[in-house]
Structures are given as C-alpha cells and as structure tokens.
Amino acid sequence: MNSNPYEILGVSGNADQDTIKSAYRKLALKYHPDRNPGDHRAEEKFKEITKAYEILSDPRKRQAFDRTGSWDGMPNMSEFFTGFGMDDALRAFQDIFGFSRSRGPSPGADISFDVDLDLKDVVNGTDREIRIKRMEHCRICDGTGADPSEGLETCSNCGGQGRVRTIRRTLLGAMQSVEICPSCNGRGKVPKKVCPACKGSRLESRERKVVVDLPAGISTGHYIRLRGQGHFPEKDGPPGDLIPRIRKIDYGKFIREGDDLVYRTLISFPDAALGTEITIPAIEDESRKIKIPAGVQPGEKLILRKKGIRRLKGFGRGDLIVIADVYVPEQLSRKEKKTLEELSNSKHFISS
Ligand SMILES: [Zn+2]
Ligand SMILES: [Zn+2]
Q: Which-ligand-closest: CA of 158?
C-alpha cells in the first residue's frame, strides 16, 4: 500500500485537523463498504484511508511519521497494521463520526483512599497495611451469576454469539453495526436461575487487607496507582485500580524542603559564643546529638550531608540542615546587665 498517509488522504504536510478530518470524511463516504457492496478494491481503499486518518489525527503518531518519513519503526505500528481489519476500520469510522459508541469492556471502579504518614515513613519508605472493601466475584456462583445447581444456558437473544447486529440510520443510509448483546453482556450464556447469594449481580463485597508499598521521598498529594486491585466491574472487564493518596505528612519538629530536612534550634548567646551540643529529635531510630561550634552566627546553617530524606527518583538522600538561631535575652537582672556592660566594649565583642 501507499506508505504516505498525507498522499492517501490527499492533504498537504501541514494540513490542520479540520482539513484532515474533512478529507477523510469525503473519501470514507465514497469508499464505504455499504456503498460499494462486494467491491474488494473499495474495501481495501476504505481500510487504507482509515489507517491514514488514525495516524494523522493522533499528534504523537503524526509527529513520529513526520520525523522518520515512514511508519516502519514507529512504536506499535506493525502491531497496529497487522491487527487492523475491516471491523477495526468500520469501528474507527463509526467512532470518528459518532454513529455508534463501540466501547470495549469497561473496567471496574477505582478505590481511592487517603494515607497519613509521619517523618520516618517518608525518610525510608514504608509498607502500610490497609483494609478495603472491594466488589469481587461472588464465591457461590464463581462470578457467573447463576445458581450453581442449575448452571447456564445459551442466550436466546444472540443465540450464544454474544453479539447482535443492529441497523442504524446514518448519513449513509442504513448502517449495520455489531454490538455486545445486552441480554448476556457478550457472554453468550445466561443463568438458568439467578444465584441466590448475589441475586445474579455476580459480585459480592469483600473486605481485604492490602499491603501498599509507599516509597521513600513521597510527598503530600502524591498517589500510587495499583493496577487491577480495585473493584471488579458489573459486566466483563478488568478490575479498577487501587489508588492510595498521601493526604498529610507529620514532619514533627522538622521542615521539609525538597528532600532536605530543616531543623531550627534556639541557643543562648553564651552557647553560640562558646559552642555547645544539641539534641535533634529522631529522624530514623534515635535522636542525635550534634556539636554547635563556638562562634556560630545567628541563622547559620550547619549541613549534615545525606542525613535527610531518601530521594523518590534516583539515588542518595537529601541533607539535614540545622539552623542555630540565637536567643537575645529580653529581660536582664542587675548582675547580668553589669556583666554584659563590662563585655560590650571588650575586643572580641565588636564585629570588625
Ligand atoms: Zn446474548
Ligand atoms: Zn453469585
């Protein structure tokens, strides 16, 4: 087949989406199999223009084509083409012009829940066991919806095919489309008698314990999507997702700045001048003593490298930053006042 989607649709390389869509529409109406019954060449042409449209209407695929000038080596392209039959072309055509919404099986609902963490959880990551209520297949009928003693029988609406043909009026005239049988939801079989436990709904609510792995470095508002761990759907389809979301994190006496942790402490003026030792609350296991050197300036940062939070992306961890603020007395006794007055003109007490 012609390998250039622009040529296939007869549009220029910089055509906008409206132009592309209208070119496709014109050609699709001309070559639509309902207008050309039994015409094999028209069918091929219809498939070809639909493929071309699928590429040019998708900015990512279009860019990939523009870059390489070919659709060889485009990601997923070979799969796209080998798997692209007449049914796909018709479905795409119907989707594009809204004749029918052919949906795949829709997944079950997601389960979102909030998680609150504290500093230790974030520094190292944590496993959190949570309890959820989830819709799963009924254990009595194994998700068939049928009374186990009676079983299933062939659906009379679709004769066991799971699909029914319907005729729709469209701008082409009557168009046939194939849809999932509403009586059996595409399964081709229906219960002889509904399951007494789930009343035929196929599902039951179950309480589950789930262990969620929350990585180090996670932040408030982050969420994790655990695929397929949510509710089972009412019809056939994959389960939804389980989505833990970090609601809040208690950092205790620390302030988080990216992956760094900031600890502010207030020391006395003599301690600042003479040097001292302070205790920092536990970040991981134990509180830690650190030395404040003599002559530390108010607001000076003491940086302990790689003692902060492990990075969510990449390796290593942030720093622990200790800021020593110096407390200036607001009230003084006579004796204190006298001592300070004696010192105020002393050589080392005047900044140079
Ligand atoms: Zn059916
Ligand atoms: Zn059941």
A: 1
Structure tokens at 177: 């489309």
One fold for 5-96 and 111-250:
no
* Sequence-ordered strand ranges (E) for 251-319: 255-257, 260-268, 276-280, 288-292, 300-304
The CATH architecture annotation of domain 255-349 reads Sandwich (2.60)
pLDDT 10s digits, 177-187: 788 888 888 88
Centroid of ligand 1 to alpha carbon of 100 (angstroms):
19
Q: Can you give the pTM of this predicted structure? A: 0.61
Alpha-helix residue ranges (DSSP H) falling in 167-320: 269-274
Q: Per-residue pLDDT tens for 263-305?
A: 999 999 999 999 999 999 998 888 999 999 999 999 999 999 9
d(CA 133, CA 135): 7
Residue 190 gets the label, from left (phi > 0), alpha (psi -120 to 50) or beta, of beta
Ligand with minimal distance to 140 CA:
2
| Neighbouring C-beta atoms of residue 212, cutoff 10 Å | 18
CA of 178 to the centre of ligand 1 (A): 12
CB of 48 within 8 A of CB of 8? yes
CA-to-CA separations, 138 to 122, 200, 283, in angstroms, rounded: 38, 9, 46
Q: Among all ligands shown, which has an atom nearest to the Cα of 201?
A: 2
What are the structural domain ranges in the chain?
Answer: 5-96, 111-250, 255-349
- CATH topology for 5-96 is Helix Hairpins (1.10.287)
Ligand nearest to the CA of 195: 2
List of residues 6+ apart from 204 with CB closer than 8 A: 135, 136, 137, 138, 139, 197, 198
Instruction: List, in order, residues 6 or more apart from 266 with CB less than 8 Å away.
Output: 324, 325, 326, 327
Q: Does domain 111-250 have CATH number 2.60.260.20?
A: yes
Distance CA 309, CA 311 (A): 6
What is the number of other CB atoms lying within 10 angstroms of the CB of residue 148? 14
Taking the CB of residue 190, how many other CB atoms lie within 10 A of it?
Answer: 22
